[in-house]
Amino acid sequence: xxxxxLKEPKGEARVALLPEAVKTLLSxxxxxxxxxxxxxxxxxxxxxxxxxxxxxxxREAILTTADMICCIQSLSTSEISQMKSSAVLLAQMGALYxxxxxxxxxxxxxxxxxxxxxxxxxxxxxxxxxxxxxxxSGYKAALLAASSLPRFFPMFMTAAGSITPARVLxxxxxxxxxxxxxxxxxxxxxxxxxxxxxAAKEEVLSIGAKFIDVEGAKEDKGAGGYAVExxxxxxxxxxxxxxxxxxxxxxxITTAQIPGRKAPLLVEERTVLAMKPGSVIIDLAASSxxxxxxxQPDQTIExxxxxxxxxxxxxxxxxxxxxxxxxxxYLNFLKLIIKDGAIHLNFEDDIVLGTCVCHAGEAxxxxxxxxxx
Length: 373
Ligand code: NAD
Prior knowledge:
Elements: E1 2-5, H1 19-27, E2 31-35, H2 46-52, E3 55-57, H3 59-65, E4 68-73, H4 77-82, E5 88-92, H5 99-107, E6 111-114, H6 129-148, E7 156-158, E8 161-163, E9 167-171, H7 175-186, E10 190-194, H8 198-206, E11 210-211, H9 232-246, E12 251-254, H10 269-274, E13 280-283, E14 299-303, E15 306-310, H11 319-337, E16 338-339, E17 342-343, H12 350-355, E18 356-359, E19 362-363, H13 366-372
Parallel strand pairs: 1-2, 1-4, 2-3, 4-5, 5-6, 9-10, 9-12, 10-11, 12-13, 13-15
Antiparallel strand pairs: 6-18, 7-8, 14-15, 16-17, 18-19
Helix pairs in contact: 1-11, 6-7, 6-11
Catalytic activity: NAD(+) + NADPH + H(+)(in) = NADH + NADP(+) + H(+)(out)
Keywords: NAD, NADP, Nucleotide-binding, Translocase
InterPro entries: Ala_DH/PNT_CS2 (IPR008143), AlaDH/PNT_N (IPR007886), AlaDH/PNT_NAD(H)-bd (IPR007698), NAD(P)-bd_dom_sf (IPR036291)
């Protein structure tokens, strides 16, 4: 069985599987073909892939001959059409949002797995690309805040005077938020954070940040530990609390998301206008609607001296480790669908079922099936 690894499109520096992961695939009795230049963004040469035992090939040859194609960003419909009809496609396709692509895959009776669908269960944790990439993004968001501020993050006591530490406010203390908090703390900032989940308070305190309490959050045990949509009244209370804290902050990092929903709007325009000139907002939720009213996905805008970074896919800015983590997630997942060097799909496994967009003309993931009904 041939596994193809493709070069990602322009703007994406990561690669789905680095040579270290290829070695493992080869040890499972598979053949691996890699598109020339696939590792370039992560500073890995074709030669390094070749020394592991992989073959370098042009894109078209991979698309038309591979039994399984692994990538991060999804392929276009025309490229999917070039794949063998029995081939399996694995990518992060946003299957619940990019419905035209999902429908195309279904109609074409393709077998496709979308990595963001990996169920968020304990057993699936080692395959969860959303978590690993959130770790990278949270870290990078804190660095971006530190490098964009016109002042220091840490406190300094020097002969040239004393500098007070920067004050950072992190909104949403999930995987990305906790990493942003930890990184900002390591850089010496004073960090405040809040989240609607009660469990987040303990985690925030344990890494040395101060927790901002907003009473009355709704929690749902059935949501698997994730946030649920809050009442209008609660969101308004949050907005008022953020408004108060934002005026003292040098940097705000927002990461608040609700699975499958538009991100909650928490930093209002009046709040941005009340912030100190020179301060920054890093909105990690920009591509899912934004936590800040003024953020624009993939753009930096400036209002009254406050810069708002609407960042999307910060993970691509740390391609070596991001690819390493992505590859590890991929391998852990591939272990479930490759047996004795061949593809083996066991839909009784909840992770295989939950991650599969479609197979043989049928939507397999219950989440995909539900959205199409
Ligand atoms: P996420 O990306 O969906 O959301 C980010 C954070 O935003 C969450 O902490 C959420 O509570 C918070 N949020 C949502 N609405 C908010 C609001 N109005 N105000 C403030 N904060 C708000 O979530 P995530 O970071 O991927 O994960 C959240 C939790 O789930 C974490 O505790 C994580 O450890 C856990 N998790 C478990 C698994 C697993 O078991 N496989 C996988 C991933 C995450």
